[in-house]
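Translate sequence into structure tokens.
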Amino acid sequence: MMKIVTKKIEYKSEKQFEFADITDKIEKIVEESKIKEGQVLIYSQHTTLGIRINERERGFFHDFAKTIEKLIPKSEYYEHNDLTIRTENLVCDPGASDCINGHSHCQHMLLSTSETVPISEGKIMLGTWQRIFAVELDCCRTRKVLVQVIGNL
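Result follows.
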């Protein structure tokens, strides 16, 4: 029998380039769903928060932050940040970081909003060292990640 279960993970990030390991939360949602064969979709509801699978290793986290900052530095000019020309999607207070995060939006375009992982025998099928991360590309804020488990019982 096909079943679909949708849950939300909510947490507060602490800093830019934070890798929040949400693997254990995903595994618990899959276990509670009772789905044995299928897939799990992990989806960010934000355009400055990426969802990626990689190793949990401090050196990699530092390497990634250096690389992405080199490719898309915060110090560059972004039209998104120029409130003299930007007119769309303005819902922030004066001085709020929401308006001056053009670099975060561009960085997100190199990442992904979601990952999909197979489920077999009720377990997510990650590789030996793989973990699921919510990658913060902006500043400290409340984040929402949707988790949708689809498959057969």
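Note: The mean pLDDT is 92.
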